[in-house]
From TrEMBL:
PROSITE patterns: HELICASE_ATP_BIND_1, HELICASE_CTER, Q_MOTIF
Domain called Helicase C-terminal: residue spans: 217-379
Keywords per UniProt: ATP-binding, Cytoplasm, Helicase, Hydrolase, Nucleotide-binding, Stress response
InterPro entries reported for this sequence: DbpA/CsdA_RNA-bd_dom, DEAD/DEAH_box_helicase_dom, DEAD/DEAH_RhlB, DEAD_box_RNA_helicases, DeaD_dimer, Helicase_ATP-bd, Helicase_C-like, Nucleotide-bd_a/b_plait_sf
Keyword presence, Cytoplasm: yes
GO biological process: response to cold
SUPFAM superfamilies: P-loop containing nucleoside triphosphate hydrolases (SSF52540)
GO cellular component: cytosol; ribosome
Name of this protein: DEAD/DEAH box helicase domain protein
Domain of life: Bacteria
Domain DEAD-box RNA helicase Q residues, every copy: 4-32
GO molecular function, one term: ATP binding
Length: 530
């Protein structure tokens, strides 16, 4: 296992554990330079392009420096939009996994009463848009007297949106003794003046050189997917496009392992590469891929660094990267030697904001593409079967099989025989049972779905395949009754047909799942958010 490079930056053990669980292998430039300086207690002005990992650059050290005690606001993070407030708060939740500091996004368009109740309960970090947090300040519903850290994120966007006066008003309410962190893609004069007025004279300036991010020879598309349909969408893309050689990118090491396992179970010739694998293992995998013994390589950004292989027709972002630079490096793996390559990205509604950031930084347009239908896949496979049959007929090298054909001719119509053989060949072309999947989806939708809770998760080394087998083998139901499966650290969820839910629960009582007594029950309302 390679050393975690984040460990060299001085972050707390709990934060490092969270970063490792998030699957990040190597800090970005802004993270490498800003984190140690923030940990030393300095005010910082960080200038780096949007989508270069600035959120982690300030949130990881701030959380490392925060102190446990009564829940009172220790850190205020101002952002320009509600979408960014939600995105930053989501990242804080992941980083706070082991530190247990609480955070809340505060923005307009959401009932203020709900925010007031959350603030009154006590919170450690507030992520807010300027206008809405000013409302709370004027109402006296938020107390900033204990704020130790102030972060102004996307400062130039704040200026463009006319928030400069609101920011001044918020800053006037904060304690003078605080650490201030300002992050921006550009540094307009008004932002510089703001920094001079409200930051310490010895403020540290960190500037990450702006790089030119383009990928002119690569056609770029994205598919809008639901999280539960991500894997089937990938299968549909592969079965329609039939790339000869493709790299599929995941954000985390765990994501690589899970995707490889799922793809292999469907018959794809694929292996994975990530930082936890030994150098020899990675080199062997890369050699297989280069020699054409693998159709697909699933990798993290760090593991794929230095890969120089010609004739990669497709790069697929199974998960979008955290920053635009990584995106460009990924898709640059195709479209080499003056050949046009194709880059696909699978994007959930929550990831759409990241896609827009990538477009802004790269000055490119990523076109929306419709997910292939089952009919699209069948048409491609039909053509493949017919092409193979015609090629064999033209070779005229099937004399030894004519006696068998004559024997079948005595009992059956040869058109029926040909159709049966074509059906067998066609089914061998498919890696995913789309007909069964479509039928199962229709059955579950008509009967309704019930979400089941299972008390085993990643820490028990449980996989989607384990859960599927556990539920089907013990209940007697087929996989058609089982829908989407979500696995978390300590527990999992499985959607099942409502008509089968009670029987599945009863049949699994008293059994073990991955070595522990299984608890299978209908998910409670408070668990439905997972």
């Amino acid at each position: 296992m390679e050393e975690n490079l984040f460990a060299k930056l001085g972050l707390s053990e709990d934060v490092l554990k969270a970063i490792d669980l998030m699957g990040f292998e190597e800090p970005s430039q802004i993270q490498t330079q800003a984190i140690p300086v923030i940990l030393e207690g300095n005010d910082v002005i960080g200038q780096a392009q949007t989508g270069t990992g600035k959120t982690l650059a300030y949130s990881a050290p701030v959380i490392s420096l925060m102190e446990h005690g009564p829940h009172q606001v220790q850190a205020l993070i101002l952002v320009p939009t509600r979408e960014l407030a939600i995105q930053v708060n989501d990242e804080l939740v992941r980083i706070n996994r082991f530190t247990h500091f609480t955070s809340i996004p505060v923005y307009g368009g959401q009932p203020i009463d709900r925010q007031i109740r959350a603030l009154q309960k006590g919170v450690d970090i507030v992520v807010a848009t300027p206008g809405r947090i000013l409302d709370h300040i004027r109402r006296g519903t938020v107390d900033f007297s204990h704020v130790r850290f102030f972060v102004l994120d996307e400062s130039d966007e704040m200026l463009n949106m006319g928030f400069i006066d609101d920011i001044q008003a918020v800053l006037d309410t904060l304690p003078a003794e605080r650490q201030s962190l300002l992050f921006s893609a550009t540094m307009p004069m008004q932002i510089r003046k703001l920094a001079q007025q409200h930051m310490k004279p010895d403020v540290k300036n960190i500037v990450i050189a702006k790089s030119t991010l383009t990928a002119t020879l690569t056609e770029q598309f994205y598919f809008e997917v639901k999280h539960r349909d991500r894997f089937e969408t990938l299968c549909r893309i592969l079965d329609v496009d039939e790339p000869e050689s493709a790299i599929i990118f995941c954000r985390t090491k765990r994501g690589v392992d899970e995707l490889v396992e799922n793809m292999q179970s469907r018959g794809y010739i694929v292996e994975g590469m990530h930082g936890d694998m030994g150098q020899n293992q990675r080199q062997n995998t890369l050699k297989k891929f280069r020699d054409g013994n693998l159709d697909f390589l699933v990798a993290t950004d760090v593991a794929a660094r230095g890969i120089d292989i010609e004739n990669i027709s497709h790069v697929i972002n199974y998960e979008l990267p955290e920053d635009a630079e990584s995106y460009v490096h990924r898709i640059g793996r195709t479209g080499r030697a003056n050949r046009t390559g194709i880059a696909y990205s699978l994007v959930t509604p929550r990831e759409y904001i990241i896609l827009k950031q990538i477009e802004r930084v790269t000055h490119g347009h990523i076109k929306r593409k419709e997910i292939p239908t089952v009919e699209d896949i069948y048409e491609v496979k039909y053509k493949n079967v017919l092409t193979k049959v015609k090629e064999e007929l033209e070779k005229n090298d099937f004399e030894k099989f004519k006696p068998l054909a004559s024997e079948l001719d005595d009992e059956y119509n040869l058109v029926d025989v040909a159709a049966a053989l074509l059906k067998i060949s066609f089914e061998n072309e498919l890696n995913f049972d789309y007909a069964s999947s479509e039928k199962a989806r229709e059955v579950r939708q008509s009967a309704g779905e019930t979400r089941l809770f299972l008390n085993a998760g990643r820490m028990d080394k449980v996989t989607p395949r384990d859960i599927l087998r556990f539920l089907c083998d013990n209940s007697g139901f087929t996989r058609n009754e089982i829908g989407h499966i979500d696995i978390f650290d300590k527990f999992s969820f499985a959607n099942v047909s409502s008509s089968a839910a009670d029987a599945i629960i009863a049949s699994c009582a008293g059994l073990t799942l991955c070595g522990r007594p299984a608890n299978v029950q209908v998910a409670q309302k408070r668990q439905q958010r997972y």
